[in-house]
Amino acid sequence: MSVGAATWRWRSITLGVAGVAGLLVFFLAMQWWFPEQNHVEQNWPAWAKVVGSSYTWWALGCGLALWWASGRRPRPCAVGDLATSAPRTCPRIAPSSMRPVI
User: pTM of the full predicted structure?
Assistant: First the structure.
C-alpha cells in the first residue's frame, strides 16, 4: 500500500510499475509452487531458488524504484538558494516579520 501511496503522491510511473509487480508477486505466490516441507527447499535447483525468492527480488526492485523516484523529485530549497532559483522550484518564504515565533 505504501508503494501505491507514493505512486499517487509523486505521480511516478516507475513506482506504479513496482506496485503492479508487487501485486503480481503477491497473487502468484511463487514460493508455494515448489515442495517446501522438511527443508526440502535447500535442494531446489538454482532457478527454483530465484523464482521462490520472488518477494526478496521484488523488495530489492521496489527499493531501487523508490531510490530512482526520490532522486528525480526537485530538492527543497535552502534559504540561500532563493535568490538563484526559479520561483517554480522553490516555495516562497514569508518575511521574518510574518513568521510565527516558536
Answer: 0.61
- The amino acid occupying position 74 is P
**How many residues does the structure list for the chain?**
102
Interatomic CA distance for residues 26 and 11, integer angstroms = 23
CA distance 77 to 23: 36
Q: Is the dihedral of CA 23, 28, 34, 38 positive or negative?
A: positive
State pLDDT tens for residues 8-66: 888 888 899 999 999 999 999 887 887 777 777 788 889 888 888 899 999 999 999 98
CA distances to 28, 31, 55 from 45, in Å: 20, 13, 18
Question: CA dist 8 to 11, 45, 90, Å?
Answer: 5, 39, 22
